Amino acid sequence: MNYCQKCILSKDHPFGIYKSNKFCSGCISFNLRKNTLPLWNDVNENTLASELEKTLGSLPDRILVPFDADGETWFVLDTLTKLGTKPTVVYFNAQYHDEVFFNILSACQEHFNVDFIGFSLPKNIIQTAIAEEFSVGNGHCRNLEIFGTHAAALFAAKQLGIKHVFAGPNQQSEVVGNHSFVIRNQLKSPAFNDIVIGKNLLPQVRNMIANTGSKFAEMFKLGAIESLLEEVHWHFLSDYIFWDSVNINEHYGKKFTISPRTVSGFGPNWQSSSSSLKLEFFDLVRLITTGTSKIDSLLSRDLRFNRISKMSALKVREKYLEKSWDIETISQFQGISTVNMKKAIDLYQKKKSPLYTPLSLTGNCNYQVHSHYQKLY
Questions:
Q1: Is the N end or the C end of the chain the one with fewer CB atoms within 10 Å?
Q2: CA 370, CA 239: separation in Å to the nearest integer?
Q3: CB burial class (10 A; 0-12, 13-18, 19+) of residue 360?
Q4: What 3-state class would DSSP assign to 173?
């Protein structure tokens, strides 16, 4: 593959990268951020407040924070409350979140004196959405999870009359370098689909959700969330702070005694903590369709931080691709047998020439999916 000289992202990455002097856009953006922004653990609160005021005019009293179960929401809340703001945390439960998700959410509720608002959709709606995504080759409801997180925050902002939403990093877009911290508050329509999810929700999925009748469900109508992005300002703290997801998560995970999920064939990883389907099924279909893996992004980030050598990163990737893929979690959620799920994947692979073929598909997972369950301390 045509790799970047520093990391292992190729020009064929589904989110798109470009190369300049043999380095990819993600590495170029990373170095620019590193040389410009203050480190996450060396942020001067007065300086940060001053920089925020340059963008906002004045630091708002009331703000919304979308919950992200990678754990970085802890740092966002810690930072914003120290600045004297009053955050309200909004979370979207896409019905396939598991105990890790709720452990991280519970830590937020226990350690930060802020309000929480949660939104959800009927489980059968989410199951149908996954089936629709799978039928066109997406095979997951990651788009729905990300879209719903944004829709929930914007809907709550509208209902509460709050004008500012503060998230942490724009993870994937920053990995490939198509999010520029130089232009702050750039999350506007039509850029939402490009720099947030990379792909729009299917029209039939939007209509099915909108027709459930709730006010929140109406946010899934075409143009609803995009129009709100013109009224509610969405900010990324990583436009002001040099972000280090690994160390941020490890710092707060140790502080709150919470561990990330262990990804089969890779190891402990915080970026897999937001949903039980995120890597084991979504990544499999992504590999079949694009030849690239979420693991490529994680390893490339570690390469940029010089945490791993390129040779070691490629060996980790090779080992990951040789693993046995356990698909029982998605099978349990869909309510179908793992045998039929294997047949579905096999049929999909035959539709066009696959860019990756799994060595084996197994169904021996002990993972329990928790729906409408929350662990409270």
A1: C
A2: 35
A3: exposed
A4: helix
